[in-house]
C-alpha cells in the first residue's frame, strides 16, 4: 500500500540562539483563503517518530499512541500530555512475544480505567509481524503503573482504530487479504470484541465470529479499507472506508444486531481519504484526510466540508503533516501528524523532523467557498506562547512575564520540548507559567 521512509531527516534549520536574534522566518504557507490555517501545538520529543491515535484520561490528560514506524529502533509507547502542555512517556507497550515489538495505533479507555490498545504490527513490514496484530487490555495500579496486560484478540492482519461502547470494543481492520471478493477489490471489517474477552484467535477471514460488518473499497487507486470510527450520542456507529473517502453509518437494533448500514457521507472534492475521526458535543464529525494533508468536517446532516489543508511540509510551523487523527481536547481540535507514508497520491513527500501535533480552533463554521475573508484566527490555548523570529527565552520572559530573569521558569516547564535553552525554534509553542 505504501513505501515506507525509514530514515529520519535530522536537523532543524530554524534554531536560534538564546541571545542572538532568530533567522528570518520562512515565507508564510500559501493555502487557499477559504481554509483555516492549523497551528503548531507541540514539537514531539525525540522518542516519538510517529504519533497516531489519541484519547483522554479521567484527569483530562491527552493520551497519545506512538507506533514509531518512522524509526523502528524506538519502542512503541504511550505518551501523556497535561492540559498545560507537558509531555512525558507513560509506558512502553508490552511487546508481542512472536515479533518482539508493539506498534500501538488506536487507544481507548474501558469503563474500569484499563486502556485498550490496538497493536497494529502489520505496518512494520517485518516478516515476523505478519498476522501478529493484537488488541491489548492494559490495567494499572493506583500509581498508574502497569498491573496486568491481557491479549483480548491476537492474529490480526492490520487492526487500526478502536472505540468502546457498552461492554464491547469496536475495532477496524483495514485489510483482510485472505478474503477474496468477486470484484477482486480489498475487503476490510469492523469487529466487536467483548471487553472481558481473552486470546480470541482472529483468522482474518469471514469465519471470525466477532466480525460486525465487512466493506469493499472500490477505489482501485487506493486499496486501503476501514480506519477511523466514532459513535454519536444516540449510539450509531460511523466508520470511514479510507480509500473511498466514504463514511458509513451503522444503526443497531435493541439486541445489538445491525438495523442498517449505508454510506452516509461521501464527497471526493472535500474528503479523499478517511483516517482517524472524532465527534464534538454538537455531533459534528472531524476526519483526518491523510492523503490530502487536510481536515474535513461532517455536519450531522452528512454534509462534508474541508476546513483546513496544508501543502507538503516538515510540519515545523504547525502544518497538517499527513494528519492521522483529530481529537477534541482543551477547547481545540488537536491533530496528530503521522508524517510517514510517501507513495503516489499523497501530498506528503517525506518523513521529516520535526514530528508534531497541530491544532485548529473549534466551533468555527466552515467558511463558504469563494470568499476573500482572512483565515479564521483565534488565540492559542491559554498559557502558551508561539516563538517568533528573533525571540530568545530571556526576551519572552521579559515581555510575557515582566522579567527576563524568569526565563528559567519557562525552560523548566518546557524541558520535554526544549532540550537546550539556547535553542528554541520559530513556531515552537511554549507553555508559560502564571504571570
Ligand atoms: Ca514532520
Ligand atoms: Ca512531512
Number of domains: 2
Reported for the largest beta sheet, the result is: 5 strands, mixed
Count of helical segments? 2
Annotated CATH topology of the largest domain: Neuraminidase
Overall pLDDT score: 88
CATH superfamily of the largest domain, by name, is TolB, C-terminal domain
Strand content: 35-45%
Outline the low-pLDDT stretches.
1-33, 366-380
Quick one: CATH class of the largest domain?
Mainly Beta
**CATH 2nd-level architecture of the largest domain:** 6 Propeller
Distance between the termini: 50 Å
Structure notes:
The strands form 8 sheets. A 5-stranded mixed β-sheet has the order 7-8-9-10-14, with no helix packed on it. The termini are far apart. Helices cover 4% and strands 36% of the residues. By secondary structure, the chain is mainly beta. The protein has helices at 393-401, 407-413; strands at residues 15-16, 39-43, 54-56, 62-66, 77-81, 87-92, 104-109, 115-119, 133-140, 146-156, 159-165, 168-173, 187-194, 200-201, 211-216, 226-231, 237-241, 246-252, 258-266, 277-279, 285-289, 294-298, 304-309, 323-329, 332-337, 356-361, 384-386, 424-425, 429-431. The protein has 2 domains: 1-29 and 385-435, no CATH class; 48-293, Neuraminidase, CATH 2.120.10.30. Bound molecules: calcium ion (2 copies). The site of one calcium ion has 7 residues, from loops.
Amino acid at each position: 500500500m505504501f513505501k515506507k521512509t525509514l530514515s529520519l531527516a535530522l536537523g532543524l534549520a530554524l534554531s536560534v540562539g538564546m541571545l542572538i536574534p532568530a533567522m528570518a522566518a520562512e515565507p508564510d504557507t500559501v493555502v487557499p483563503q477559504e481554509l483555516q490555517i492549523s497551528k503548531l501545538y507541540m514539537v514531539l520529543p525525540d522518542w516519538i517518530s510517529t504519533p497516531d491515535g489519541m484519547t483522554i484520561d479521567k484527569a483530562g490528560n491527552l493520551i497519545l499512541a506512538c507506533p514509531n514506524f518512522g524509526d523502528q529502533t524506538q519502542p512503541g509507547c504511550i505518551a501523556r500530555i497535561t492540559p498545560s502542555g507537558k509531555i512525558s512517556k507513560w509506558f512502553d507497550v508490552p511487546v508481542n512475544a512472536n515479533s518482539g515489538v508493539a506498534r500501538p495505533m488506536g487507544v481507548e479507555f474501558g469503563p474500569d480505567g484499563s486502556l485498550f490498545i490496538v497493536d497494529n504490527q502489520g505496518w512494520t513490514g517485518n516478516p515476523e509481524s505478519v498476522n501478529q496484530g493484537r488488541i491489548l487490555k492494559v490495567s494499572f495500579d493506583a500509581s498508574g503503573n502497569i498491573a496486568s496486560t491481557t491479549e483480548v484478540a491476537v492474529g490480526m492482519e492490520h487492526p487500526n482504530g478502536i472505540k468502546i461502547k457498552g461492554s464491547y470494543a469496536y475495532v477496524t481492520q483495514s485489510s483482510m487479504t485472505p478474503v477474496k471478493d468477486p470484484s477482486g477489490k480489498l475487503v476490510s471489517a469492523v469487529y466487536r470484541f467483548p471487553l472481558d474477552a481473552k486470546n480470541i484467535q482472529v483468522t482474518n477471514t469471514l469465519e471470525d465470529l466477532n466480525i460486525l460488518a465487512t466493506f469493499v473499497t472500490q477505489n482501485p487507486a487506493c486499496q486501503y479499507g476501514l480506519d477511523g470510527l466514532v459513535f454519536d450520542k444516540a449510539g450509531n456507529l460511523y466508520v470511514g472506508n479510507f480509500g473511498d473517502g466514504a463514511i458509513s453509518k451503522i444503526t443497531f437494533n435493541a439486541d445489538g444486531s445491525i438495523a442498517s448500514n449505508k454510506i452516509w457521507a461521501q464527497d471526493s472534492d472535500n474528503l479523499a481519504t478517511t483516517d482517524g475521526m472524532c465527534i464534538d458535543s454538537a455531533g459534528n464529525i472531524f476526519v483526518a484526510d491523510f492523503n490530502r494533508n487536510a481536515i474535513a468536517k461532517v455536519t450531522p446532516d452528512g454534509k462534508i466540508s474541508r476546513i483546513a489543508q496544508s501543502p507538503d511540509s516538515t510540519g515545523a510551523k504547525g502544518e497538517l503533516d499527513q494528519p492521522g487523527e483529530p481529537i477534541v481536547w482543551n477547547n481545540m481540535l488537536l491533530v496528530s501528524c503521522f508524517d510517514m507514508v510517501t507513495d503516489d497520491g499523497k501530498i506528503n513527500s517525506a518523513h521529516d523532523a520535526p514530528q508534531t501535533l497541530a491544532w485548529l480552533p473549534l466551533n468555527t463554521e466552515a467558511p463558504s467557498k469563494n470568499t476573500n475573508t482572512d483565515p479564521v484566527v483565534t488565540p492559542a490555548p491559554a498559557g502558551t506562547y508561539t516563538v517568533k523570529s528573533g525571540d530568545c527565552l530571556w526576551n519572552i520572559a521579559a515581555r510575557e512575564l515582566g522579567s527576563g530573569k524568569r526565563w528559567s521558569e519557562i525552560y523548566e516547564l518546557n524541558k520535554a520540548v526544549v532540550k537546550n535553552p539556547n535553542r528554541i525554534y520559530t513556531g515552537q509553542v511554549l507553555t508559560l507559567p502564571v504571570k
